[in-house]
Amino acid sequence: MLEKLKTKIKEIKNIDSTGHVTGRSMYVDDIIERADTLFAGVLTSPVSKGKIVQINVDKALEIDGINCILLATDIPGENQIGGILPDEPLLAENEVHYMGQPIAVLVGEDENCIHKAISLIDLEIEKEIPITDPKTAFQKGKILLPPRTFRLGNTEEEFSKKDLVIVEGSCDIGGQEHLYLETQGAYAIPKEKGIYVISSTQSPTAVQRTIAKVLGWSMHQVEVDVTRLGGGFGGKEDQATPWACMAALAAVRMNKPVKLILDRYVDIRSTGKRHRYMADYRICSTKDGMIQAYEVMFYQDAGAAADLSPAVLERTLFHFTNAYFIPNVTATAVSCKTNLPPNTAFRGFGGPQGMFVIEAAITRLADKLKLPREEVQKKNLLKENDLLPYGQIVRNVKTNLSWDTLITNFDINKRIASINKFNEENKLKKKGYAFMPICFGISFTKTSLNQASSLVNIYYDGSVGISTGAVEMGQGVNTRIAQVPMTVFSLPLNKIKIETTNTTRIINTSPSAASSTADLNGKATELACMTLKERLLQFASELLETPMEQLDFEDLYVTNNNQKTSLSWDELISKAYENRISLSEKGFYATPSIHFDSSIEKGHPFAYHVYGTSFHEVTIDVVKGTYSLDYVAVVHDVGKSMNKLIDQGQLEGGLVQGIGWMTLEELRYSDEGRLLSNSLSTYKVPDIYSIPKVLETMFLEDPEPHGLLKSKAIGEPPLMYGIGTYFALLNAINQYTGKLPNTIISPMTPERLFTFLHLSRHHP
Amino acid sequence: MNPQSANGFWLNDSFIEFNGNLNMTLLDFLRYSQNLRGTKIGCREGDCGACVVIQGKFSNGNIKYQQIVSCLTPMGNVIGTHILTIEGINLPNQLTLPQKSLMETGGTQCGFCTVGFIISLTAYCMNANEFNRENAIKAIDGNICRCTGYKSIIRAIDIINSKLQEIDLNHRLEQLVQANVIPISVIKVAKQMERISPPSTNSNASTVVGGGTDLFVMKRLEMLDKDARYILPLSMSEEKIIERDGNIVVHGSTTVTEFVESPLIQQTIPNIKKIAKLISSTPIRNIATIAGNFVNASPIGDLSILFLALDAVLEIKGQEGIRQVPLKDFFLQYRKVDLKKNETIQYVSFKKKNPWHLNFEKISKRTHLDIASVNSAMSLEIEGDTIKEIHLSVGGVKEIPLYLSRTNQFLAGKKIDQNTIIQALEQIQNEIKPISDIRGNELYKRSLASNLFISHLMELSVLDDKNQIVQIIPQSIKISEIHHSRQANGGKANA
Questions:
Q1: What stretch of H or E contains A187?
Q2: A665 and A557 in one domain?
Q3: Per-residue model confidence (pLDDT) at position B208
Q4: What's the CATH number where A702 sits?
Q5: Which chain B residue lies closest to A31 (C-alpha atoms)?
């Protein structure tokens, strides 16, 4: 019976979905404004680099409905929002460093007057020549921090050995716009003792801390509340903060509520993206494809300020060998400062770029060895107890298992045979395929962030309210957390409410990021629930005069040796209250046994790794340079899945987002640093026709002790399967041209594919 | 409540008197005047579908309900119609079939796009002539979801379809009420709709608004201070596509959807549905007009390119009467057309053939709902093995949608062989002058223009010999490259 209930709990639908499908779910801009609410808009820099000579707002202030225009000089506290490095002003002062950098906040009665006023601000900027690519920035010494190097073995010695096949090459990996459907925004309401801010942020505490800093206040004067996000993907981890600060600044100045919602153009133009990376590598192997050494240098385009770039860079270094064991490696990475918006977190957080380069290196190595690419990949997959370059030994490795399961379960060899036959028979259409294994570490790489709190309140009518630091942004974290009290107390969903994420209820929260939100906040909730359970069963044992060890909860009743007793949940709770037993508990969780020493770049930074393998098949049209994604199969390691529907959604959604990054989604800048793909009509994300025609998936289930209810994190890892689609397309191109480009550039837009097919002499 | 009022419309189950600014978008009206915030703002350019609503229009004795983007729909195009938002779709105590299905399959994650999908799927139930996966996917081709990867949404579609197989399309609305797709209030309004007289807008403003799908992308706020004339409501009761003297005559205000769904059009252009799938998305096609695409004069306008290959002629009405202008002469310079102030395109006509041998190609980053790098259309009539009539057009390669006059002239009367094709490729390259921009660099566009001509020949079964094409492709590229260097050298020969 209990088992049946547990299965039922695992089958619950996303607890927000009723609100979503009926349009009743509220996002920041859906809150009906208080009548005295003012609106804010932002004047941003029209140039990528320059000195501000003067700003005159007099004419703009004359527009009907405009209340005030705030400049850097109007900031009462510190004009500083940088998290890792203090290098980013909220509003530009003296200099601008990227196009779209906020300069002034306009406050007025409606959108229309703000729009008119913006064009009347007299802004004079002395233009300077911007830097728009990371290698140039590096050459000019524009770096955020000294380069970091991860090492294993000795690469130099290895490359000097004879009888090894060596391949050198470069990559240029494009960035990616988050394109959360809900744009950035916040609604700030002055309160008697401070300010209350509703923000669309993945980091309520970062918003709170930064608002306090900008206002010159203390954190306890700022209350940040988050109901949900209309998508985040990392784009609202650090970059929800400035807009919330501006709304708060204006609200305090006017002593009225202020709402600031970015329109899509400002959002795309002013916010950071997934980092573009350039990389140079060399790789060597034996003639039969055993990789002996790999050297790589990563140039990260950090944009104009640090934001989260150093942390993203670090994760690149944690993932530059992907799912492979290579005995000798040297990887160096550096964050380069360009005049583009500060790049930021995006699902995968630097891992995808690290993986892309090793996949490119293996692709070209296999080509030189005249071996199938997958043979080289398979030979070098991680095995149990292998040592990763950062000193962690891998356990419960599922590289080969997921690979072999994929081959047998989806009859991949037959598929490859038919692809080969197709290519023999066709000259104007070519098929390509690729395997993509993944190995992704779970935990914040900054060890201190791996902590979370949960507040579990049982009201005396038996209903339960839970607050944690987790932010719901579509990933289903609220559903997973709700499953914890459902499981521990055997309660139905209607007894449980997941509260908004609020900085006065749960303090000092870590961002909802690193795929770890459910693990950390769910485990904290589990701890609190277990404490309450013990307390309640202790009390029940007194009431029922039965040893506590025999008691449990099932289906709203206390059971004795699995037999229902007469004591119901509601009655127990009510009596516990009458007997002055606490019905509230705080849980705190810190991931055990993780550590990392950056002075030697060694440690055990991850609680566990997530594995999996995917297979991708594509067809290209040689005449038109177009392509179709025919088939993708994935075998993915989910631990013991706690909600298959949610896991499936994360797997498919991550995969398609990764495919988008690798194929359609192209950030193009002019030489002056102007983003040309600055709207949904020029920046294309996958639509329903762009996804693989057939997608087959399978979960490998093996309980993970460090995961929530033995599950594994699933937010980020599936995105990296998308890289496989790129290499399938490259494989198809190779079928026609018989050669691979030296510099492997992403994304593979139809234009790039056409160029690789026909015009490689002109443009790389 | 006065359903007879000229300036009003039905919003969900209520009649709304509207005396506000007709140039305000429906989206702003819904969210900020009515506080109906289930309809979301995603991009304000018709590219995401978060704002779609259903519009019911009464014409020719029937009410047709279809999804439209509210961000690009001015209130001027709402008057006299029935607008359904999510608030008007929700049932009192249960979920509708699309809502339940999407929830069951996990087709909603962050939820921000979800209402748009529910609306589009509801419109599909109210509108599809057959309930199958292909039609349902087409109904949501204007909706972007950034979370799910769409597979779960397709699984929801399969559930919806399985529940609708028994629906009797002759009593659709009643049956959809029974199937929990729509509330009964929709039928009540639909009955009262019949009593609404067509709205009257007597403005003499020189700004004529059709569907508004381009205008309100560029000038949403500016339009609030302008005077505009709305032509769509006026044309609601007209017969829009007719046959006259061997020609098909299409009213300028015909929407793309009306054009595609016309039996007359389907008869003369049998592949029109396939072609139309490449042109924007369902909620845009439902409001964008044919003439609007011409007047907009985008060098890459899909309909302009298509109609150039139909050798279409415009009938333009002004104060001095009516004049005829071939479409190929209509485009003068970048975004400049042969249309005087107070003139409007009344009709566009083209020969009725049985049928047209027409092919349309469009290369864009994303195959659907995207703006082309290069698009091209070609119609062909062959007698024996020689070309009797040919109309080839290419977009994105010059400042106007381009009819390749010299290439067409050259090809007429020729026998199709490798030699002819190579010479035609030379002609094409002479006639085009693309520029590098966000949609592709100049050489890419050059090469595409040539290769799409080859694709036309393949698609129209003129070139079947694969080996021959394999040989032509490198030559085609080479010719493009030569012209590319010529253009780079300011037109001087450099071969």
A1: strand A185-191
A2: no
A3: 84
A4: 3.30.365.10
A5: B37
Q: Are residues A259 and A282 in the same domain?
A: no
E-only strand ranges, A673-759: 694-701, 743-745
Which amino acid, one-letter code, is at B296? N
| Contacting residues of B for A676, CB less than 8 Å apart | 437-438
Query: Do A684 and B365 count as a contact with CB atoms less than 8 A apart?
Result: yes
Under an 8 A CB cutoff, do B113 and A677 touch?
no
Angle at the Cα of A386 from the Cα atoms of A380 and A391, rounded to 5 degrees: 120
Question: Where among A558, A590, A622 does a domain terminate?
Answer: A590
The question of whether A716 is a catalytic residue gets the answer: yes
Helices (H), B128-236: 133-139, 151-164, 172-178, 185-193, 215-218, 220-223
Whether chain B has a CB inside 8 Å of the CB on A694: the answer is: no
pLDDT tens digits, residue range A291-338? Answer: 999 999 999 999 999 999 999 999 999 999 999 999 999 999 999 999
- Residue B111: alpha-carbon gap to chain centroid: 27
A574-613 residues touching B, CB cutoff 8 A: none
Q: Is B195 exposed, middle or buried (0-12, 13-18, 19+ CB in 10 A)?
A: exposed
CA gap B146, B162 in Å, rounded: 26
ipTM, two decimals: 0.97
Q: Are residues A217 and A298 in the same domain?
A: no
Chain-centroid distance of CA B451 in Å reads 25
Helix (H) or strand (E) holding B488: helix B466-488
Q: What pTM did the predictor assign?
A: 0.97
Nearest-CA residue of chain A relative to B97?
A21
Q: Measure in Å the smallest separation between the Cα of B422 and chain A Cα atoms.
A: 15
CB B205 within 8 A of CB B229: yes
With a cut of 60, say whether residue A763 has pLDDT above it. Answer: no
Taking CB atoms and an 8 Å limit, are B103 and A17 in contact across chains?
A: yes
Collect all residues of chain B within an 8 Å Cβ-Cβ radius of residue A64.
none
Active-site option among A182, A237, A666, A716 = A716
- Which of B90, B469, B474 minimises the CB distance to A22? B90
Domain residue limits at A7: 2-25+451-590
- Cβ-Cβ contacts under 8 Å for A602 (sequence gap 6 or more): A390, A391, A596
In a domain, A368, yes or no: yes
Residues of A in contact with B365 (CB under 8 A): 664, 666, 684, 749-751
- Does A759 lie at the interface with B, CB-CB under 8 angstroms? yes
